[in-house]
Amino acid sequence: MSLSDAKLRSLKPKATPYKIADGEGLNVLVKPKGSRLWTMAYRYHGKQKTLAFGKYPIVSLLEARRARDGAKRLQRVCEKLPI
What we know:
By secondary structure, this protein is α+β, with helices and mostly antiparallel strands. The chain has helices at 5-10, 61-80; strands spanning 18-23, 26-30, 36-44, 47-56.
């Protein structure tokens, strides 16, 4: 499910933080006080990691998608490097 700017603006805070997926690992984390943070979940050498790109609307939907794509490219390069 792809997010839209209108959907992002309409997200309401709940008692506990929750995530809404955009696709390909990109999520928006909605915190109880109403702030929205771009995150991406990924695995590095078998361990679960989380990368944050910034707060919405300072970081737009397009910028977050570009950051996700760049992070995925970098991850593919790093996985090929010997440890």
